[in-house]
Design brief:
The complex is a heterodimer of chains A (282) and B (757). Chain A is mainly beta. Chain A has four helices and 19 strands. In chain A, strand 15 and strand 16 form a beta hairpin. In chain B, the strands form nine sheets. Chain B has a six-stranded mixed barrel. A five-stranded parallel sheet of chain B has the order 7-6-5-9-10, sandwiched between helices. Chain B has a four-stranded parallel sheet with strand order 3-14-15-16, with helices on one face. Classes of the chains: A mainly beta (282), B alpha/beta (757).
Chain lengths: 282, 757
């Protein structure tokens, strides 16, 4: 038995219902022995992070609901904390509302910022996957119940037939910040990566060019291609950041190649003019 | 509670309203004081001396206690009536004043019946243009939920591209846009003209449709291509006005004409700008040029879900219109005087006032206000006739009975309201409210009401235009907190003081008696008994067994040989019974109106092009509806304040409303994300937290309407507000000369860091 969660970012519309439902469950409510009441503001056990990418005229907004990751290799459990933070047999990590009192240093060890210290009671607090509800028969925690587009799912990662296992098995589900090396038990579908976009115009007419072929090559020699749409726009989503890319754009007898572009962040290249001969461009 | 320095028998100190503290008095004293004052004002000035003020959305959940119902009954039966307030076509201004003369639909505020455009879009559209539209904000907070998020995902799943046209990356645009066309607020109609120009030049519009199902196209064409005024409305003409490159406008026009394109909006946005009716008219005309009603070509507003034919408009619910206690038979208001409520401050400070429009109230009740001569044509009453206050033979107002609400935050240039509430002309203000709201503090007496959770009631709500319509039983969850009383109980107590208790309650000895009386007026008794309904708590109107979705609006129109022969609701109410490029009503009634000419024009917003204002206040402001509150409702919910694009915490611990500003505009002012900043113009100064973002174009700033009024210093002569109350900054200039809607966008401000940090 190993409880885990899958959160589908591609569905999330940023309503913050999960963040608020979580507060509704835990603010002013003690759920012994798993959690003590949360203060009215200041703690977000299911914290929705807003991510704004790109610049005018290509700006995308994503939201990343971030609970405790209930990590397999949890930094919060690495020190000898006298049972203040422990893992249950079902994989859920609990910050004991009694034993964790006074451990004010503890929250800083979580790279996800999912641990909080209660300013008044000095106890360590965090998401419990609503274990008090799950134990009493609830199928899903409050955050998942409140989601209008069903983007949050809790389940048993050890059971291959569970919904979460199936979602993970699809191959699109990835942990947030795997580089932290904590083996999170929360997986995400559709985490935003980096995009490279632009628009192709014709020097002859000044208008945007539809169906131009845009070929992308990265510094490892991998290539991708798309065609421009009716607005002359092209876009490569899900690129690896901090690599260099080169674009070759062609339509009929016209062709243009860009210089190498270091993709240090999401980029819209603006208008790229397509001329009847090969020209180096910014 | 009573304001400490209010003495009904001595000095009333009206100048201290909003400044002085309150002191607790007993219910007995409060009711006696209130009933005596109301009687005194009535005896001195007549019933029209009393003004009943209520908000657009009391959100009080329940028909028995719903805002004006119990109070209307009291004032009508006990005091011979009152001067009432007339609502602007709130949030639909441009459609009401522009849509109705173009294609009719006055009863639905100038927009068509809009059923089932969702299915039409999914099956037939190849592109969706969301013009000045943010359904995730406007559908969700007002209209019942996130069903719209699911619908948007369905569109996305079918690879139907979304094009958004707006100055900001609004919440829907940020998640769903395939293409964002940034545009300077208030110039949308210039872009619309550039699109029409491209279609006319390239011959890519539905010429048969235009010839057979519309009138006045030649006059429109002459304006678009510049024959009538010498200015061709080419994309190159629009580019410096709108900031949209000519090539982008042309690409949009070509894409739109090349495939079935759905135009998506809900409300708000550009229809709340100066001359917004021109843009709304053009939206209709653009789709008419592409054959409105053709599969996939329409205007999709609301959710577009199919209607449930089992749902009948019950007498329940503000959404579902018609009676509550306000219009029970015996309680008719005989006073033939109303105030266009947007002009309330001027009505008090500078009467007389004149306005155009009868708007929401009469649309909802289906009854024209009582000062309209019987037999008056609806369109004339709403669109042509000027109305005024005070009416001959009626008194100006001298007492205000307020039912909560926060007009200070929702109307325009509301610093004027502060002065109006402090006018010595207003001798008495009583407020019934359940919030300690900032505007209620401008009262002399406050009567604490309960929330919907503290009393029994019946309510109706629906989402998706009746697809899921519900009649609820709302038993109280807890006993009333403190000494608060339910609205009905407050009015009953006042009725007792006025000696009309028996008349007031008739045979309804208990609240439950009222609930049952209302329940009998719904169609719930068809499905269950009263006891069953109370036990279950609600009825969802079932869909019929053999349900077939309704035909999208205008499909019949598109298919008809002769659209003037269409029957019932399918026949357009315009004089020609066709869509009118040149409005026959406007041509007849206002032939020389340059602000709303018979053929719609682009007219620049006054403050945008004012050279003096431009140098003093370089930024143009937009104030859309918020995703995270419904006007002021929920604006003080602490958990919502932790949403970063909505509120940010200042060093002082106060949560400031976010003002969106572009990094370039922020940098030249030394402003960083999260800084507390001030935005100001000649009207007021308002503090915000800076949300520095690429989500708004340079030269513009954005903050949502209806953050609450919260002055830093009640006693200061100039208003400095920290609640983020943009209504203080907004101009109260109406939509146009003959269109008295509010325009909440396109006014100018300057922004700088707030000194105290």
């Amino acid at each position: 038995m190993k409880y885990g969660m899958v959160i589908d970012i591609s569905k999330c519309v940023g309503c913050y219902n999960c963040q608020i439902a979580c507060k509704d469950e835990f603010v002013e409510n003690d759920w012994p022995p798993y959690s003590a009441s949360q203060p009215d503001i200041g703690q977000l056990w299911m914290r929705v992070d807003e991510v704004v990418r790109g610049s005018i005229p290509r700006v995308k907004v994503s939201y990343i609901p971030t609970p405790c990751m209930h990590c397999g290799n949890a930094p919060c459990m690495s020190s000898d904390n006298g049972g203040a933070i422990y893992r249950r047999p079902d994989g859920i990590i609990i910050a004991d509302p009694t034993k964790s009192a006074g451990q004010t240093e503890q929250p800083t060890c979580c790279p996800y910022g999912a641990l909080y210290s209660n300013e008044n009671t000095q106890v360590v607090q965090k998401c419990t996957f609503c274990v008090h509800l799950v134990e009493s028969g609830y199928k899903q925690p409050r955050c998942a119940e409140a989601c209008p587009v069903s983007s949050i799912t809790l389940g048993d990662l050890d059971d291959p037939n569970s919904e979460v296992s199936k979602l993970v098995a699809c191959g699109d589900a990835k942990p947030l910040h795997p580089e932290y090396g904590t083996n999170p038990h929360v997986y995400y579908i559709g985490l935003p990566k980096t995009f490279l976009a632009g628009s192709v115009t014709s020097t002859a007419t000044g208008d945007y060019i539809k169906d131009a072929l845009v070929e992308l090559a990265d510094d490892r020699g991998t290539t991708k291609s798309v065609k421009t749409n009716g607005f002359g726009d092209f876009e490569f989503e899900d690129l690896d950041p901090n690599r260099t890319y080169k674009l070759t754009i062609s339509k009929d007898a016209m062709i243009t190649t860009t210089r190498s572009i270091l993709l240090d962040k999401d980029k819209h290249l603006g208008d790229i003019e397509l001329k009847p001969q090969t020209v180096e461009q910014q | 509670m009573k304001r400490v320095d209010f003495d009904p028998n001595g000095n009333r100190h009206p100048e201290n309203r909003g400044k002085s503290e309150f002191v607790r008095i007993s219910w007995e004293e409060a009711l006696t004081l209130t009933s005596n004052e109301l009687k005194r004002v009535k005896n001195k000035y007549g019933p029209s001396g009393i003004y009943l003020s209520f908000p657009a959305h009391w959100q009080h959940g329940g028909e028995i206690h719903e805002d004006k119902g119990p109070c209307n009954r009291l004032l009508c039966l006990g005091l011979g009536g009152y001067t009432s307030n007339l609502a602007n076509a709130d949030s639909w201004e441009g459609w009401y004043y522009g849509g109705a003369p173009t294609w009719g639909f006055l009863r639905s505020c100038g927009i068509h019946g809009r059923s089932n455009s969702l299915q039409d879009t999914l099956e037939n559209s190849k592109m969706v243009v969301a013009w000045s539209s943010d359904p995730l904000s406007t559908r969700v907070t007002t209209s019942g939920g996130y069903d719209v998020a699911t619908y948007l995902h369905w569109v996305k799943k079918r690879s139907i591209p979304f094009v958004f046209i707006s100055p900001d990356v609004n919440y829907t645009c940020g998640r769903f846009a395939d293409k964002w066309i940034p545009i300077l607020a208030g110039t949308d109609s210039a872009l619309a003209l550039a699109i029409a120009y491209t279609w006319i030049r390239e011959g890519t519009y539905d010429k048969d449709y235009v010839a057979n199902k519309t009138v006045g196209f030649d006059a429109w064409k002459n304006y678009v291509i510049g024959i009538s005024d010498g200015v061709p409305k080419a994309p190159e003409w629009a580019e410096p006005i709108t900031g949209v490159k000519a090539a982008v406008a042309r690409a949009l026009a070509r894409e739109w004409a090349s495939k079935p394109t759905m135009l998506l909006f809900h409300y708000g946005g550009a229809c709340r700008s100066p001359y917004a009716h021109e843009w709304c008219r053009m939206m209709i005309l653009l789709q008419a040029m592409q054959g409105m009603g053709k599969p996939g070509v329409n205007i999709w507003s609301g959710t577009g879900a199919p209607l449930n034919p089992n749902f009948k408009h019950t007498p329940i619910g503000a959404e579902t219109s018609i009676p509550n206690l306000a219009v029970t038979k015996k309680a008719k208001n005989p006073v033939h005087q109303m105030i266009w409520r947007l002009f309330l401050a001027d009505a008090i400070l500078n009467p007389p006032i004149t306005w155009y429009g009868l708007a929401l109230m009469s649309l909802r009740t289906g009854v024209l206000p009582n000062f309209v001569p019987p037999g008056t044509d609806w369109y004339e009453a709403h669109l042509r006739m000027p109305w005024s206050y005070p009416q001959p033979g009626e008194s100006e107002i001298h007492a205000i009975y307020r039912l909560g609400g926060s007009q200070m935050a929702t109307w325009c240039e509301t610093g004027k309201l502060v002065r109006a509430y402090r006018s010595p002309k207003i001798e008495f203000i009583v407020t019934v409210d359940y919030w300690w709201s900032s505007e209620s503090r401008f009262s002399d007496v406050i009567l604490p009401a309960t929330t919907t959770f503290e009393r029994d009631d019946i309510s109706g709500w629906m989402t998706s235009q009746g697809a899921y319509s519900i009649v609820n039983y709302n038993p109280k969850c807890i006993e009333p907190l403190g000494e608060s009383k339910a609205d009905l109980d407050i009015e009953l107590a006042l009725a007792d003081k006025l000696g009309i208790l028996e008349e007031y309650r008739e045979d309804n000895k208990t609240t439950d008696g009222w609930i049952k009386k209302f329940w009998l007026m719904t169609n719930v008794p068809k499905y269950m008994t009263y006891e069953e309904w109370k036990r279950k708590g609600y009825l969802v109107h079932p869909f019929p067994d053999k349900f077939s979705p309704s035909v999208p609006m205008f499909r019949d129109y598109y298919q008809a040989e002769d659209v003037t022969k269409l029957k019932g609701g399918l026949l357009l109410e315009t004089p020609s019974h066709k869509i009118e490029f040149e409005s026959q009503l406007l041509k007849k009634w206002f032939p020389n109106d340059e602000e709303r000419p018979p053929v719609p024009h682009y007219i620049p917003p006054p403050e945008t092009v004012d050279p003096l204002l431009s140098s003093k206040y370089p930024l143009i402001m937009m104030t859309p509806h918020s995703q995270y509150r419904m006007h002021t409702i929920s604006s003080e919910v602490s958990w919502l304040k932790e949403i970063p694009s909505y509120k940010m915490k200042g060093a002082d611990g106060y949560f400031y409303e976010c003002l969106w500003i572009h990094p370039k505009d922020a940098a030249i002012r030394g402003i960083k994300n999260g800084n507390i900043i001030k935005a100001w113009n000649d009207r007021a100064t308002v503090l915000f937290a800076a949300y520095v973002t690429e989500r708004i174009i340079p030269g513009m700033v954005r903050a949502c309407e209806s953050a609450r009024y919260d002055p830093v210093d009640q006693h200061a002569p100039d208003i400095v507000d920290r609640g983020g109350c943009v209504a203080l900054l907004c101009s109260d200039r109406p939509t146009s000369k003959h269109a008295s809607g509010m325009s909440v966008n396109c006014f100018r401000v300057q922004v700088a860091k707030w000194k105290d940090q």
